[in-house]
Description:
Layout: E1 2-7, H1 13-21, E2 26-32, H2 35-42, E3 48-52, H3 60-69, E4 73-76, H4 83-92, E5 96-99, H5 105-108, H6 111-116, E6 120-122, H7 131-145, E7 149-161, H8 178-184, E8 189-193, E9 196-200, E10 210-214, E11 218-224, H9 230-234, E12 242-249, H10 253-263, H11 279-286, H12 295-302, H13 310-317, H14 332-343, E13 352-363, E14 369-379, H15 387-404, E15 412-414, H16 419-431, E16 437-442
Parallel strand pairs: 1-2, 1-4, 2-3, 4-5, 5-6, 6-15, 7-12
Antiparallel strand pairs: 7-13, 8-9, 10-11, 11-12, 13-14, 14-16
Helix pairs in contact: 1-15, 3-4, 7-16, 8-14, 10-13, 15-16
Amino acid sequence: MKRILVLGAGLVARPLVRYLLDQPDFHVTVASRTVSKAAALVGDHPRGSAISLDITAQDGDARLGELVSQHDLAVSLLPYVYHVAVARHCVAHNVHLVTTSYVKPDMQRLDEAAREADVILLNEIGLDPGIDHMSAMRIIDRVHAAGGEIKSFRSYCGGLPAPDANDNPLGYKFSWSPRGVVLAGRNAARYKEHGHIVEVPNARLFATHHLTWVEGLGDLEAYPNRDSTPYIELYSIPETDTMYRGTLRNLGWCDVMQKLNELGYFSLEERDDLAGQTFRQLMAALIGREESDDLRNDLAAHLNLSPNSGVMAALEWLGLLDDEPIPPANTLLDVLADRMQPRMQYRPGERDMVILLHEFLAVYPDRRRERITSTLLAFGEPDGDTAMSRTVALPAAIATRLILEEEITLRGVHIPVRPEIYEPVLEELARHDIVCEERVEQVDE
């Protein structure tokens, strides 16, 4: 019997735990600070157990090491800042590790130690990162095997309300941390376009958006996602002239977020003047005006918008002009995230959806050129698992099984860009109706 330790019982844990409990030779222990959440995931399954673990407690690290030592593999669904601590315990106790988070330098530095311990530390095995890597590398490796080159690669991903649940002015609802969504709006971006490096400062992130057509959905907004340029090396495509990774949102999102950024709502500066203010008073202060009955028009003028614009309607819908006290908060970003959270939740029976789109231009020695697309469109289950939770959790769960069954035998720090990882994972994801549909079209020179 293989023993698996799942650390964390948050939004994406349920599909992973259920998949692993369905395997006849696995015992799954879910550890969470809130043990009731872990117990709800395990239920009364005879090969599951729920325990309490507070990694921030005084004895948290020692307790973590003790738990890791009792298992064959740990899946860390904790916030990314804890992954390296988990990884160090895994290396010390010869235990494999799976995470869905980006590899940070401190994790990469464990590569040699992990090889010596005969374990794999597999990261970025979720959706984005995860399925994006795997579906891209399947195409890239195929083109290279046929003697071709990738001259352009664009990749887009987004988690959005399904069209039937898209009913608010921002076109968005939270399937993960509201604060995390807003924090992502603080990023700058960098990508390669037709041979030139394009730098996008945070102040222009949402202004630097374009429309992208997705089959079955129509036009969506796309804006650049952090630094795309390392993926040229990561995906082994030095020949490419274009490398762009973007985030997808419904129409209208970027204009609203751009104006919120201009107003200062993405700031993490600690403030002691928020207590006792109303949202209306705060808005007046942010635009340097006295609070007045004409604040709406003053705000529109400050933002260079029509008072009847969609952006103004969204700011009002969020309640940012309401004469209502601001709940306790230390930063403007927290004020915004807390204001968004109750207004942008999924209601019972509503579905989310996940979109992943790759666009390649491949060129072959015979001068043949192909436009290749790969599209994943997944919908959540009403009152069941979200599309986001399934597409993040199932790749990690499948990889966990493959490692413990010794179908994946790599050692060291890895992400799923190798065929011995991506081929079996993508194959099984397809059996769970998570399919990247590929299309190849010949294009003129």
